[in-house]
Prior knowledge:
This protein is an alpha+beta fold and 351 residues long. The chain has helices at 2-17, 26-53, 58-82, 128-189, 195-212, 220-237, 263-272, 303-308, 314-326, and strands at 218-219, 242-249, 256-257, 280-289, 292-300, 331-337, 341-349. It has 2 domains: 2-84 and 125-153; 192-349, Histidine kinase-like ATPase, C-terminal domain (Heat Shock Protein 90, 2-Layer Sandwich), CATH 3.30.565. 56% of the residues lie in helices and 13% in strands. The strands form 2 sheets. A 5-stranded mixed beta sheet has the order 2-4-5-7-6, covered by helices on one side. The longest helix has 62 residues, at 128-189. The model is unreliable at 82-92 and 121-126 (pLDDT under 50).
Amino acid sequence: MIHILAWLVFLLLLVSLVPKPPIVNPVLTILVPDLFFISFFYINFFFLVPKFFFPRKYLVFVVICISFLILTIAVPSSISESSLIRPGFPAGRDMQGFQPGPPPGFGSQGFQVPKDKMPPIRLAFLRPEFSYTIFVFIFILTLSTGIRILGQWQQSEKEKVKAELAFLKAQINPHFMFNTLNNIYSMAVSKAERTPEAIEMFSDMMRFVIYETTNDFVPLSKKIEYIDTYITLQKLRFPSTVKVNYQKTGDCDSLQIAPLILMPFIENAFKHGISTETESNIDIQIDIESNKLKLYVKNSINKLQDMENGISQLGIENTKKRLELMYPGDHTLNIIDSRNEYVVSLHLNLK
């Protein structure tokens, strides 16, 4: 429908603006070139630009375009010439007193006119019907080529973003898997009674990571369940000196979120804020109101753990990149890394 409306407007503009010679059939003068213009638009868009322009075969591309321009001028001109409204010749008696004019370059008295006084000679392609054809042809060529290049660039950007997101996911998923396996291993070494339960929870987490994160967006309710399981799993491991305050409010049933957006900040709190010797505090708050999500994570910093894992910021950095790609202009992330506390505040506009 957009194409049809655009071409109708285009044709109406040409019919109303293009000067029409009085002795030429106006339908053939306007309609035939327009059919060539419309045909060339799609030939250039679907064939010439992908086949010759993108592979940088510019010479072939220019030659074909010039050939089509000549054809656009020649065919309508020949059709118009054959449809001229030729005036009838007068009878012989009516031609009495007819005086032929002087030949070109001579005045009315038969004297040659100086060259600087002669009227300028107009080139054939500068005739009104030809000049407008050339102008419109160049416009159609530029428009179709520009739209095709813009579409190709947008497609390339989408593929680039998709490839980068897939790469970032591939980096994040093993990061979670290895950390959680280490937690379960610690429970198994200490022969904790809830080790089987922890293995089952880990299985549920991996099921989410493998099957759900293949999509660009997942239900927020599934994501919250994943976080619940992760926090429960972590509580099984740590002693009573670790205080975890986890709260969530709001309805998330109809909302979608990009996978593995929230988890790195929560996982980071447990990784860097846990100490088995001193009291550790982790506060996690998730608030959902309408289509807005607020995540607040605060944890104390374990100096020994921070020194041992100071270079392991891959999950956080990748999540920042994913937020920029998936939620441009729809998120606010503030991170405060002080000497004793690490605070994350994330605001998201969800779909």
